[in-house]
């Protein structure tokens, strides 16, 4: 177990910029980006498509290095992969040739945990996400929602201090998605890890988070709003979305986000017309 400075934010973006080299020159995806995720806090990032949400998450994961500024993890500048974080992508992350149990246990095995203990801990996580009856199923024998549950167990089994989620539930049907959102909230409520959650879906962001950070349209996207969501917990996402105070918070965020979405839409139309 690594030492964790619990007084420092779990994640801190300090005036971060990220650029990509393209055939026509450098593209600045994000710039002047500063915000924190406190230990135990659930923070969502929303913004128009292509504004740089995944880029931000990838910087927090250590998969991308900022061109300017720095990312700090519990007070320490991040160099290389963020080993305190578990990462749950939008795309399927399961190995098709491995069973549900093997898929969950693999992260522990990589960390040198003996097979029996790894399987025992993986089984406990499968049970926690409601899949105790399916440890021997292969990914193609599971529904989309069940695969997401396995992926969630896979992310959480190593007990990361930080959970990074990129559009993790967006491929699911509405009902399964709400179940997964409630499940994630219940797990988070019990363990209080820091969560950085990327989503297109403002309802999802508001119903789940302690804070919602709004990014501007790109290029050089940056935070233009940071909204505290002081709705009571525990929350049931479907129920809370009908609550008047939810609707008020959603409307306040949308009033900032809307213009950025329109800007991004206009820009894409111009690009398409020029091509
Ligand atoms: N490897 C790369 N090379 C060049 N450009 C990139 C690269 N990765 C991302 N970009 C560009 O950087 C910008 C931000 O991309 P990113 O995927 O972070 O946005 P996003 O907000 O997560 O998008 P979406 O909402 O569509 O998932 C986009 O314009 C994208 O085309």
From TrEMBL:
GO MF, any single term: ATP binding
Entry-linked PROSITE patterns: ABC_TRANSPORTER_1, ABC_TRANSPORTER_2
ABC transporter domain span: 11-242
Keyword DNA-binding: no
Domain of life: Bacteria
Pfam assignment, any one: ABC_tran
InterPro entries per record: AAA+_ATPase (IPR003593), ABC_transporter-like_ATP-bd (IPR003439), ABC_transporter-like_CS (IPR017871), ABC_transporter_ATP-bind (IPR050166), P-loop_NTPase (IPR027417)
Alphabetized UniProt keyword annotations: ATP-binding, Cell membrane, Membrane, Nucleotide-binding, Transport
Family that this chain belongs to: Belongs to the ABC transporter superfamily.
Record protein name field: ABC transporter ATP-binding protein
The species this protein was found in: Sutterella massiliensis
């Amino acid at each position: 177990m690594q030492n964790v400075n619990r007084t420092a934010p779990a994640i801190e973006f300090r005036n971060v910029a990220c650029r990509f080299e393209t055939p026509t020159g450098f593209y600045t995806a994000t710039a002047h980006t500063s915000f924190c995720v406190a230990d135990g806090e659930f923070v969502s990032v929303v913004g128009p498509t292509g504004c740089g949400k995944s880029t931000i998450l990838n910087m927090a994961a250590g998969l991308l290095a900022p061109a300017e500024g720095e990312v700090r993890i519990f007070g320490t500048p991040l160099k290389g992969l963020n080993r305190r974080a578990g990462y749950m992508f939008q795309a399927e992350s399961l190995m098709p040739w491995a069973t549900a149990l093997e898929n969950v246990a693999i992260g522990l095995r990589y960390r040198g945990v003996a097979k029996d203990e790894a399987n025992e801990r993986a089984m406990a996580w499968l049970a926690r996400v409601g899949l105790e009856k399916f440890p021997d199923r292969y990914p193609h024998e599971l529904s989309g929602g069940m695969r997401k549950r396995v992926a969630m167990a896979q992310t959480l089994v190593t007990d990361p201090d930080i959970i990074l989620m990129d559009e993790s539930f967006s491929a699911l049907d509405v009902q399964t998605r709400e179940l997964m959102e409630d499940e994630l909230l219940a797990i988070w409520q019990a363990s209080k890890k820091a969560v950085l959650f990327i989503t297109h879906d403002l309802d999802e962001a508001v119903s789940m988070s302690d804070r919602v950070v709004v990014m501007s349209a790109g290029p050089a996207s940056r935070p233009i709003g940071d909204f505290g969501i002081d709705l009571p917990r525990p929350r049931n996402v479907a129920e809370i979305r009908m609550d008047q105070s939810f609707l008020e918070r959603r409307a306040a965020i949308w009033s900032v986000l809307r213009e950025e979405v329109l800007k991004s839409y206009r820009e894409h139309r111009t690009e398409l017309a020029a091509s």
